[in-house]
Amino acid sequence: MWDVPGAQVWEFKGERVVRVRTYTDSASFPASVDEEEHQKRQRDEAEQDKEDKKDKEDKKDKEEPAASPQDEGPSKSEDHTDQERRDTGQRT
Known about the structure:
By secondary structure, the chain is α+β, with helices and mostly antiparallel strands. It has helices spanning 35-63, 76-88; strands spanning 6-13, 16-24. The chain is rod-shaped.
């Protein structure tokens, strides 16, 4: 898995191996994590994901242009004028 220098020391009793010890520099290996630390990391990750999602939504809201009166459709006065044109046969 990792290619790091190390040494093995084999201890024999007669013709049988009773112990094998491996020595290497542990800087190349990840630190062990207990269950409490693992749960804390998961909570922190979930919290960060939630913040990222909120930031993304806020950014999206800021990028969307605000609705202008022109985008909202015809006003009541325009509807009335259009209706009058239809009643009198005028074209728009």
